[in-house]
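Hi all, long-time lurker, first post. I run a small reading group and we've been trying to get comfortable going from sequence to structure in the token notation. Rather than ask abstract questions, I figured I'd post a concrete chain and ask someone more experienced to write out its structure so we can walk through it together at our next meeting. Sequence below, copied exactly:
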Amino acid sequence: MELTLLGTGAPAGLPRSDCPCAVCALARGTRARAATALLVDGALLLDLTPGAALAAARAGHSLVGVRQVLLTHPHDGPAVDLPPGLPAAGRVPDGRVLTLISGHRVRAVPMDAPGTGYEVTSPDGDRLLYLPPGGAPAAPAEASRPYEMVVADVVGRPDAIARLRAVGAVGPTTDIVAVHLDHNVPGGPELDRRLAAAGARAVPDGSTLLVGEYHAVPDVPRRTLITGGARSGKSLEAERRLEAFPDVLYVATGGTRGGDTEWAERVRLHRERRPGSWRTEETCELVPLLAEPGPPLLIDCLSLWLTDAMDRAGAWSDDTWHSGGERALRERVAELVEAVRRTRRTVVAVTNEVGSGVVPATSSGRRFRDELGRLNAAVAAECEQLLLVVAGQSLPLRT
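-- Answer (accepted) --
Happy to help. Here is the structure in token form:
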């Protein structure tokens, strides 16, 4: 099954004509995207956008053979002009199956937002799932086998991919192509990095892909360490890296801090932005979690884990430090680093960057700074990917 993406952008396109934002200002050349529309085997057009016939011609195709035009999302504003010779655009009712003269079978997939998704099966049995902007399958059933390709709003609805993974509809070899791309994510390397974290990719307008043909799926790093300063956006970056996966275990090492209302508000905001399918465990006992099999772990954060470890070792006191506290802390850190090395789980860990600011005034403060720097270096050495977050921007230090 041959798929040509006549456009890969949001319904308003990219850049938006009325938007002065930095992303729109830079959306030129291959970064410019027309509204998403898919041409399947020259016989089926999914979504009708202005200039579809010209876009097809630029991609080396024609709309002459199109026998069915289906819409996925509500089209606000004036009616879209239908190119001469094309059949009237329509929709398939949720759950219904449409069989085309070409032999393709199209099943309408119910969404949890306005619009309709379409599962397209070729005469050879290859399957493509196309989802509308801002939509996710309402209640995906357990899949007998994964789709060969999923074309979806990966940036806007990463939980849609998580839902499909949870029921086996997206597997390790599924080619996930991101469309409906808008100005909420910078283009270029930043877009590629975010999509790769979800096992997805973006392609330029006019690309022709073969559904079912092997394509190297972006590798999702199994262990990632994210560091950065206070309020740099490192926790949000960590959450983004796993939001397309189901059943993530969020490991909070900070505890509850009873009576601290400011801390309680921070915790509340963190919880509200996490996907509803994630679980939370408040603990500093990381070694057992790393040793056992299970879903991905998001550990936030190692600096609070070190605070707890220094409490247990009595490492804040100079006397205790020199009479056994240093040895006890070193053993606990070595145990954690060894667990990170041996773990088979997907792990994203957050830590604080230290050493770039004012030298702490106390010996205990300097000790914490030094030990956190050592811990960060040791854990980073065991991770496939290392990111530094500055002002909300992620800089890959190791990929």
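A couple of things your group might point at:
The chain has a mean pLDDT of 90.
The longest helix spans residues 318-342.
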